[in-house]
Specification:
By secondary structure, the chain is mostly helical. The protein has helices spanning 4-27, 31-56, 62-78, 86-108.
Length: 110
């Protein structure tokens, strides 16, 4: 059985290349090309991120959590921030947002 860690390790270099190409295209003013790279990155990362979000938060909120993670990554890219581990950043954002989601729900019922 392939673990989450193995998947991130195997795919991480591909995801990083896509992000780096997207950021280079964005910074050179080719926003359409950047969008193409980002779309592919999103297509490749979404299934695994959804699985993580669904395990740690309410399944009904998983898609929103993953979308927020991608949005945060895109903001970093457009601001020219260096991201050295795209997969790790996305996973961390999803895990933290999922925890926040559970905490908000718990606080609602207290």
């Amino acid at each position: 059985m392939v673990t989450e860690e193995q998947t991130f390790a195997d795919q991480g270099k591909t995801w990083q290349r896509l992000f780096d190409k997207a950021q280079a295209a964005w910074m050179s003013g080719d926003h359409d090309l950047a969008g193409d790279y980002l779309w592919e990155l999103q297509r490749q990362t979404t299934p695994l991120l959804l699985a993580i979000a669904s395990q740690r938060a309410f399944a009904s909120h998983a898609e929103d959590i993953v979308a927020e993670a991608h949005l945060e990554l895109y903001r970093s890219m457009s601001a020219g921030k260096a991201v050295k581990n795209v997969g790790g950043l996305l996973r961390t954002i999803v895990q933290r947002r999922a925890i926040d989601d559970v905490r908000r729900a718990a606080n609602k019922y207290e």
